[in-house]
Amino acid sequence: SQQGEEDPQALSIQEGENATMNCSYKTSINNLQWYRQNSGRGLVHLILIRSNEREKHSGRLRVTLDTSKKSSSLLITASRAADTASYFCATDVKNDMRFGAGTRLTVKP
Amino acid sequence: EAGVAQSPRYKIIEKRQSVAFWCNPISGHATLYWYQQILGQGPKLLIQFQNNGVVDDSQLPKDRFSAERLKGVDSTLKIQPAKLEDSAVYLCASSFKSGGEAFFGQGTRLTVV
């Protein structure tokens, strides 16, 4: 069964705008990861946030984790056309890695 | 550092035939995952190995799917017999430890006709 659910399912923005995606999950986790998948390509790891962390940054990416609400958000600032991809959250419950259905982000030039 | 290698990249078979996929993880990675990704959906975990032992195969349809990781390195995933609904991309990933950052191969796109 899938663990996480991303919201929204699809998001379309203009280049330069910020994009926010959310992930909700059902059970307690050890950590949560975000991955990107470009059309026709494999999944690429973006960032990992542990259950005892609340916020993490990597370049233009900002991830937050609220374990009380069982949710995480991924913020991409100053988006570029190259950010067009599907974004997935993956949760580690029992040292495994289970993905949600993803958010499809389209950044228009 | 070499990435996760998968072969073949594409495979077309008829239903009821058998097929096998191969994965070579990154050297030194103890954890290996196989995922099934149906078009428009997120990857679904089929099986997870820690070295050559199975950690989680709760979502593997064991009546038709099998996987092994001999010597704790390479892995093969087999489907026998294939059904139309098995059409998907099969992704292999490896990580240094369970639950850590995973590196994915390019996947094998299977079409069952």
Describe the structure in your own words.
The complex is a heterodimer of chains A (109) and B (113). Chain A is mainly beta and 109 residues long. Chain A is built from no helices and eleven strands. The mean pLDDT of chain A is 93. Chain B contains no helices and eleven strands. Chain B has strands at residues 5-7, 10-13, 19-24, 31-37, 44-50, 53-56, 65-68, 75-79, 88-95, 103-104, 108-112. In chain B, strands 2, 4, 5, 6, 9, 10 and 11 form a seven-stranded mixed beta sheet that branches. In chain B, strand 5 and strand 6 form a beta hairpin. Classes of the chains: A mainly beta (109), B mainly beta (113). Chains A and B meet through strand 5, strand 9 and strand 10 of A and strand 5, strand 9 and strand 10 of B.
Keywords:
heterodimer, A: mainly beta, Immunoglobulin-like, six-stranded mixed β-sheet, five-stranded antiparallel β-sheet, 11 strands, globular, B: 113 residues, mainly beta, seven-stranded mixed β-sheet, four-stranded antiparallel β-sheet
Largest sheet of chain A: 6 strands, mixed
Question: What is the ordering of alpha helices and beta strands of chain B?
Answer: EEEEEEEEEEE
| Name of the top-level CATH class of chain A | Mainly Beta
- Give the name of the CATH superfamily of chain B: Immunoglobulins
The two chains with the largest interface, and their residue counts, are:
A-B, 23 and 24 residues
CATH architecture of chain B: Sandwich
Helix content of chain B: under 10%
Instruction: Return the CATH architecture of chain A.
Output: Sandwich
According to CATH, what is the class of chain B?
Mainly Beta
Distance between the first and last residues' Cα of chain B: 37 Å
The overall pLDDT average of chain B reads: 95
| Class from helix and strand fractions of chain B | mainly beta
Question: What ranges of chain B have pLDDT less than 50 throughout 5 or more consecutive residues?
Answer: none
Number of domains of chain A: 1
CATH topology of chain B: Immunoglobulin-like
